[in-house]
Fold this sequence. Notes:
By secondary structure, the chain is of the alpha/beta class.
Amino acid sequence: MIAPVLRVDETVLRANIAAVTARVAPSELMMVLKDDGYGFGAVWAARVAADAGVSWFGTYDIPAAIELRRELGSGPRLFAWVTSADEEIDAALHADVDLGVGTLEYLHRVVARAGALGATARLHLKVDTGLHRNGLSAAEWDEGVTVALRAQERGRALLVGAWSHLAEASDAEDDAAQARFLAAVARAGELGAEVTHRHLTASAATWARPELRGSLVRVGAFCFGIRSADGPDLPGIAPAASLVATVVAVDGGEVVAGIGSFDGLPSILAGRVQVGTPGGARPLLAVEPDTVRVGAWDGAAVGDEVVLFGRGGTGEETPTTLAEAIGTVGEEILCRLTAHVRREG
């Protein structure tokens, strides 16, 4: 059976990046590449983006940042934000990766590892703005800034940034979070820190609320053409990948194509969405372990292609539209695809 293919489109990815960059100016784009670049392949996406002028990349974990450094060289700034083990901290310091630091314990470990290696850690201190996804509380902030500045005096650290996350549950909550964030940045200045890079917003808030943007914005999903669940279509943004499977049998009024739940396609999509075919949109009737069943079209034949999601050229829906049908987000539809799905582009 021919393996299904995720066809990634460099031209569309570049157009999306250009649209995001224009939208967020004068803030600078940090392109987020978590979950292997939302399933596109982080290295491939980063190479395209770097060539398009992106100079900051964000990853959840240090190993992903190390891989990008190895593949991209010394040019871009890399930011990794998950709390990590000492061995990973060492690797990040060797690879010149900026570190997001959200607890005093992690801050002390990063500074200690920098001292042991004779290295200088670039630090972005995280502010707890009320979401409680780690971050230094108001009671901890002065200590965190002071520890970082003392390490800076010894050449073991550079306090270059402050950052946080937003709940994006309501404008009022996000306004309150920004107020806490800006108060923390101002307090850092009073303590003697020069916080050059300030980043608070991810894709949705970055796009919709320019007043919340800092000097940096962290945008991942929108660069890949994945709009927010239950959110509007975005001008200049389109899905940068199509998921394609080959027809392996025609069974009366149904067509069988070579992709299934073992490939990461949610079985509960059956009966809820349309897919693209040479005959236009057809209902997705069943998702079996290795195959799907789709409503047939005139002249359907083995070797034809079924498009499970994409930009709509053959009647298919977007990843986010599929996600909305089962109460999740577009990122999940892409990120759950298994290694059996070939990446092509």
